[in-house]
Amino acid sequence: VKYIAGKKEAGKLNVLTVSEYLDVKEVETVDSRDLFSSTEPIKYEDYLKLSEYTERNVDLVDGRWLPVFEEDFTALDDERWNITDDGTVWNNELQAYKPDNVQVRDNTLHLTGKRERYKGREYTSGKISTEGKFNIKYGRIEFDLKTDFKLGSFPAVWLYPANSKTSLPEVDIFESIGKDKGAVYYVNHWEGGKSAYRHVLQKPMEYHNYAIEWRKDEIKWFVDDRLIYTSTEGIPDKPAFLIINLAIGGNWGGPPSKHTQFPITLEVKNLKIMREVVK
């Protein structure tokens, strides 16, 4: 009793009688499932109700971002991720996607490009997505990423429209091609146009933290917590799902050469998708 009283006095424990709890349940209408599956920003007063009256009490990041999807890559849960097994290609890419090329170890996602035949293609690689399992509309997405920029590589982390018959809008959070070693592209595509920015990394062979903040009127790109680029045109207003893939070749990046050393690698860790809490 003394222990509980001390916790209550310190503000670390909320104590309700059964009758008080029933009164609260009658008044409060916020459903935690709605808050974590919806796509719009969360009102601060709803966040407080969620924190106080559900078992899931999540601290805000930087006082305004609520994590709704966190991936530590200890395993790929098939309720959250699809692992692609497909020889279909786009933009004249050269790979087939093979599940064996997707691995998680040391809390890191490893996608590997190899020179080997599979499903009629000369190369294999890895791809995962949240299609049909988790969508986002507005919010912050961040992750740590490292790739080796080998000639012929085309890694990307990007957003693709959910439940749509078209491939646009598309938002490229991270995109690079091996022939432009050390450069990363941040791109917002929409019907009839795009805005893009090329950014040259310092120490490109090391891990960097990449993030976007997507709001109704803008998308901001950050690298290592530094604002790099802002797009204010053609901002998507529909839910999208996340794709992480390592393509090989294609119209833009071009093919590997006989000197390209395989395997090619893409590593991703510490992935978070967060919803903004607004007052």
Task: List the SSEs and their pairings.
Blueprint: H1 2-9, H2 18-27, H3 32-37, E1 42-43, H4 44-53, E2 65-71, E3 82-83, E4 95-97, E5 102-105, E6 108-113, E7 123-125, E8 127-129, E9 139-147, E10 153-161, E11 170-175, E12 183-190, E13 193-200, E14 208-215, E15 218-223, E16 226-231, E17 240-248, E18 264-278
Parallel strand pairs: 1-18, 4-7
Antiparallel strand pairs: 2-18, 3-8, 5-6, 6-18, 8-17, 9-14, 9-18, 10-11, 10-17, 11-12, 12-13, 14-15, 15-16
List keywords for this structure.
279 residues; nine-stranded mixed beta sheet; 41% strand
Provide structural commentary:
- By secondary structure, the protein is mainly β.
- It has helices at residues 2-9, 18-27, 32-37, 44-53, and strands spanning 42-43, 65-71, 82-83, 95-97, 102-105, 108-113, 123-125, 127-129, 139-147, 153-161, 170-175, 183-190, 193-200, 208-215, 218-223, 226-231, 240-248, 264-278.
- The strands form 3 sheets. Strands 1, 2, 5, 6, 9, 14, 15, 16 and 18 form a 9-stranded mixed beta sheet that branches.
Outline:
The chain is mostly beta strands and 279 residues long. It contains 4 helices and 18 strands. The chain has helices spanning 2-9, 18-27, 32-37, 44-53; strands at residues 42-43, 65-71, 82-83, 95-97, 102-105, 108-113, 123-125, 127-129, 139-147, 153-161, 170-175, 183-190, 193-200, 208-215, 218-223, 226-231, 240-248, 264-278.
